[in-house]
Amino acid sequence: MKVMGYKKSSLLQLLVLVIRRDLVLAMRRRADVLTTLVFFVIVVSLFPLGVGPELGMLRKMAPGVLWVAALLASMLSLGRLFSADYQDGTLEQMMLAPQSLSMLVLGKMIAHWMVSGLPLVLMAPVLGLQFDMSAQPLGVLIIGLLLGTPILSMIGAIGAALTLGLRGGGVLLSLLVLPLCIPVLIFGTGAVEAISSGLSVASHLSLLGALLVLSLVFTPLVTAQALRISME
Amino acid sequence: MLEVSNLACSRGDHRLFYGLSFSLKPGQIMQLQGENGSGKTTLLRALCGFMMPDEGEVLWRSENIRHLGEDYCSEILYLGHLNAIKDELSAVENLCISAGLSGFVLKENDAIAALRHMGLRGREALPAKVLSQGQRRRVALARLMVSDAKLWILDEPLTALDVGAVALIQGLIAEHLENQGMVIFTTHQPFRVAGMEMHSLSLS
Predict the structure, then answer these.
(1) pLDDT recorded at residue B189
(2) Residue B36's domain is classified under what CATH number?
(3) Number of compact structural domains in chain B
């Protein structure tokens, strides 16, 4: 008996399938999602407690603290990006998919951002209040995070693919990925500092946007290649 | 259709096999034989294109699979040691996603029909983590029913299966061969497909 009630799927359908699959899996494994978010909240909240209630100082350090915490929080979940699929054999099936592996990888990156990046962006305004940030810098911070966190997921995916199946890969992953994220950190915090001192934020944000577009084009290709190497 | 010429593979410094040549035509089935560690899985992975052979090449319709890339992928179905099944998803979801990854939109009703044929009636909506080893293998093997791949590459498809399931697989393989499909597989169990000549290749 053969079941033949199917039709060929398009590239877009495949992308949607991968994103939906990863989101469903994340919802059924909610603990993983919550660890990232709780880590972010706790790290950011520790600073006002540690530094003391000096408003001028808090306002000055707010963008840096929020950005560094977001960077570290996004590192937390990177290790799981491909490892579960690698261990249960799904990755083998993905590599045999008749569509390009880069597309599947892009789907996984988008899902990863929605699960571990987007909640941080949504949480940031609340945390910014602890640092006495005013509305305008907060707005710029959020736009910056919105542009920057997908880049973190995408650059991180390259590292995750390269360290796949290695023991102690988590530490190596951070060592590989964190230096590459420095430009994102600089432009992200730079935008907030610019608006606080009355300058234009356009240059910082457009550079972040350019980085995002560059990553969107190149990181799926590089990650797919890295996965092929790791699977040999 | 599938031709392997002068293939050599190694794992680390250890050379598993060399000078391996064979071909497989539509309607033929081949069983790989050899002790544990003789390179059966490595050969199957090389046939899938997961690993570069040290020497030699694998040809599909007289073209190297390295150059065919995704066109070759759409014509093969690989089932490895790992089931590629997610614990958190139900049998139906698992099958629909597997089909999706191999480029097909599979309707839920069709997935249920396939799973029932595989003897999983009543288990379709359970999360895979509550299924037994054999049942999980059956979910993985249900992919054979919803694929139109020409070449099946099966690595120990019979592990954890009971007698009834083995008979089911025999039936699926026989049907596939009648439709001019090809199968290459490994197993340590006695396995025959009625009315079909079994080619065998011994690795040592």
Answers:
(1) 85
(2) 3.40.50.300
(3) 1
